[in-house]
Amino acid sequence: MRRIRALFAAGAAAALIVGAPAPASASPREPVTKVWSSQVAVPFSLAVDGSRVLVADGGPGIIGQLQSNGSIKPLLTGIPGLAGLATRGAWTAYGSSIEDDSEPPIISASGLNIRSPKGTTVYADVHAYETKHNPDGALTYGITDPTSCAAGFTAPGRIDSHVYGVASWRGDWLVADAGANAIFRVTDRGAIRTLAVLPPVPVTLTAESVGALGLGDCAIGDTFYAEAVPTGVAVGRGGDIYVSTLPGFPGESASLGAVWRINPSNGKATMVASGLSGATGLAVSGSKIYVAQLFGPGIALVDHGKVSTFAPLAGSLSVATAPNGTVWASTMDLSGQKPGTIVSISNKRVTVRGHFR
C-alpha cells in the first residue's frame, strides 16, 4: 500500500528546530503532557526501555536516544526509509526501505535490521519474502458485488512491501508490513514466516471516491473492499498480539482505522475497536490500548472495546508505554513547516535516562 508513504512526504522535509522541554498546564490529579523534544522531523516510532527513550526519526534516517535536555543523541545514522523500532534487552530491530523517485514511489527493497548486543547486524529481506509468497495474493480488493454497475472492478493483493511497525515477541520479532498487509514473524537469524494477513475493509463509496476511482455515479453507495494496512504491532498480557490498521484508498480519509487482536496459532484477526482516524501505531499497558491517530483528536484510549481521547495531540504519529505506566508519544507537523515532538503523558514524575547501553 504505497499511499501511506505519501502521507508523510511533507513532514520528512521539515526543518529541525531546537526547543527546550516545556510542560503543559494540567490538574495535579490529571495526566500531564510534557514536551521533551522538538528536535525530530518524522518520529515514526518510539521504543521505551525503563527510563530510556529511543526514537526512529524517518526524516534524517536516525535512531537516537532522548536526552534530559531535549536533545537527541544519534545511535545509528544514514538509515534509508527508516520506520519501526523495537528493543529486547540489548538487542535492537528496525525497518528500512528503499524507494525510487516515481509518483507514487515504488519500493524496491524493504527489510528488518536486527542488531545484536555485539553490534553485528542481520538483515531479514522482507521484500524478497513478499515477492516469493505474497500472503494477501489470495484476497480480493475492490467491488465484489455482482449486481453493482462496477462489478468486476477488483484486484488481488499485489506484491508490495513496506516494513512499518516492529515489536519483540517470544524471543523473535513481529513486523507490521504496510505494503504486504500482513504480520510477519522474524527470528534473530532473519528467518521469516507469515503470522497473519489482515482482512479487507468494507468502505462505502462516496461521489468523491467514485470520481477518484474513475467509476460512474451509479457506483455511489456501493461497497469497496480496501486494503487493511497494518501500521503498528504491540504485545499485551500473556503474549497477545495487537495490530493497528489504516485502510488503504478509498478508506484513508474516513474514520475506519481499527485495532485487531491476532491469534498466533491460526492467524485469525478479531476486531477490538474501530472508528479511529489515521491509526499509525499502538501500545498496550495492561488492559489498556493506546493508539496514535495522525488525523484524529490525538492519542486514543481503547479500554474493553470503548474508544475515548486520552491526550489531544495533533499529528500523533507513534505511541509507547513505560513499565511505570507513563505514556510516550511522538507527533509530526503535516504542513511540513514545524518540527515533530516527543512528549510524555503521566500523572507521576517522569525522568529520562540519557546514558547509553
Automatic annotation (TrEMBL):
InterPro entries in UniProt: 6-blade_b-propeller_TolB-like, ScyD/ScyE-like
UniProt entry keywords in alphabetical sequence: Signal
Signal peptide: 1-26
NCBIfam families, per the entry: ScyE_fam
Protein name: ScyD/ScyE family protein
